[in-house]
C-alpha cells in the first residue's frame, strides 16, 4: 500500500518544524521579559504552524488511492 503525499514538501516541512520550535520557545521567554500579553501572539503562531504540520501528517498517512468525500 502506497502512502499519499502531504501538502508540504520535505523542505517546507523542516521549515515548519523550525518555525514551530522557535515560536514555541519565544512565548515563555517573552512572557518573562515583557509585562504585557504580547507573548500570546507567539503562542498563536506556534499553534497555527502545529495545525499545518498535523494536517500534513494526516495527508501523508492517507493511502494514495483513497478518495476524499
Automatic annotation (TrEMBL):
It comes from the Bacteria. The keyword Transmembrane helix applies. The chain crosses the membrane at residues 15-33, 39-55. Keywords: Membrane, Transmembrane, Transmembrane helix. This is MFS transporter. It comes from Micromonospora ureilytica. The lineage of its organism: Bacteria, Bacillati, Actinomycetota, Actinomycetes, Micromonosporales.
Amino acid at each position: 500500500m502506497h502512502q499519499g503525499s502531504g501538502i508540504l514538501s520535505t523542505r517546507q516541512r523542516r521549515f515548519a518544524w523550525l518555525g514551530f520550535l522557535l515560536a514555541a520557545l519565544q512565548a515563555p521567554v517573552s512572557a518573562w521579559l515583557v509585562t504585557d500579553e504580547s507573548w500570546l501572539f507567539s503562542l498563536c503562531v506556534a499553534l497555527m504552524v502545529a495545525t499545518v504540520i498535523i494536517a500534513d501528517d494526516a495527508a501523508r498517512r492517507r493511502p494514495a488511492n483513497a478518495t476524499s468525500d
